[in-house]
């Protein structure tokens, strides 16, 4: 999700932008299909065994391709993982744009549960469905994080007022980021448990704050 600088993986050191080259973009359908198969193979390896399991040889073997084919499309493992991150980034950007385009009136008409779903529910579920996205996208990207935090802050200031809105926005933002960091390290059953209860927990938190805001206005 960016407007913005490229999303980076936090655990891999990158060369300076001027020294990096983009992965080869296939012109023919067969080449595009082969490239996607290699990316799918890398994603499957991450989902099963983590980022460390990915190598050019492992991805080629998983995709049923030759190692030469892998190196035809990607210079090295880092470039392959960059391409995987960019693929998710495009999907996330499209979804996040819909969040940004909602007007204040539209947000005001939503229930607390709908607010939580539209803000973070979809994103949490996306990352859980795609462990490779969670592994390859940098959750500490400041531009992306600042953009998201600004949306939460604006919505909650409008709903809760200047006293309760900002701390509530900080709390919800921290819970989302913390949940993503937590799920990155957990087995699927633990991830599913957290994701299942998180929206209801945050909706209850927002309901309680809205009740408090109403009492404060009396």
From TrEMBL:
Q: Which residues bind DNA?
A: 55-74
Pfam families recorded for this chain?
TetR_N
Looking up InterPro entries in the UniProt record yields: Homeodomain-like_sf, HTH-type_TetR-like_transc_reg, HTH_TetR
For bias type Low complexity, the affected ranges are 19-28
Where in the sequence does UniProt note compositional bias of the Basic and acidic residues kind?
1-14
Pinpoint the HTH tetR-type domain residues: 32-92
Q: In which domain of life is the source organism classified? A: Bacteria
UniProt-recorded name of the protein = TetR/AcrR family transcriptional regulator
What is the source species?
Answer: Bradyrhizobium denitrificans
């Amino acid at each position: 999700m960016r407007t913005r600088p490229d999303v980076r993986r936090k655990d891999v050191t990158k060369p300076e932008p001027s020294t990096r080259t983009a992965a080869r973009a296939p012109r023919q359908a067969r080449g595009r299909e082969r490239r996607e198969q290699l990316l799918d193979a890398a994603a499957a390896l991450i989902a099963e065994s983590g980022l460390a399991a990915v190598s050019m040889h492992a991805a080629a073997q998983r995709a049923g391709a030759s190692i030469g084919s892998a190196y035809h499309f990607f210079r090295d493992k880092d470039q392959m993982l960059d391409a995987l991150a960019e693929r998710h980034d495009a999907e996330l950007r499209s979804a996040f744009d819909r969040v940004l385009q909602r007007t204040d009136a539209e947000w005001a008409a939503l229930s607390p549960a709908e607010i939580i779903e539209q803000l973070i529910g979809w994103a949490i579920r996306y990352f859980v469905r795609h462990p490779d996205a969670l592994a390859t996208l940098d959750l500490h990207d400041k531009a992306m994080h600042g953009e998201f935090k600004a949306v939460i802050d604006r919505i909650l200031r409008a709903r809760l007022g200047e006293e309760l809105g900002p701390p509530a926005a900080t709390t919800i933002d921290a819970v989302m980021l913390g949940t993503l960091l937590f799920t990155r390290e957990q087995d699927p059953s633990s991830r599913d448990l957290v994701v299942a209860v998180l929206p209801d927990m945050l909706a209850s938190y927002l309901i309680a704050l809205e009740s408090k805001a109403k009492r404060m206005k009396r």
